[in-house]
Model the fold of this input.
Amino acid sequence: MLIIHAGGVAQLAILTGDPVTAFQLGSLPFLPMGLLKVALAAALVTRISPKLANLL
Done:
């Protein structure tokens, strides 16, 4: 997630000429949902991984 956001913000910074504006427009609107997805994925992995280990 971090790499995708960094690449997008870098491209916007080049296009707009202002890194702060690029961060505000290119990353901040998407950050809350991205962090929520990461948290949900982490919760799923911690619940599923012991069950998968038992199958192997």
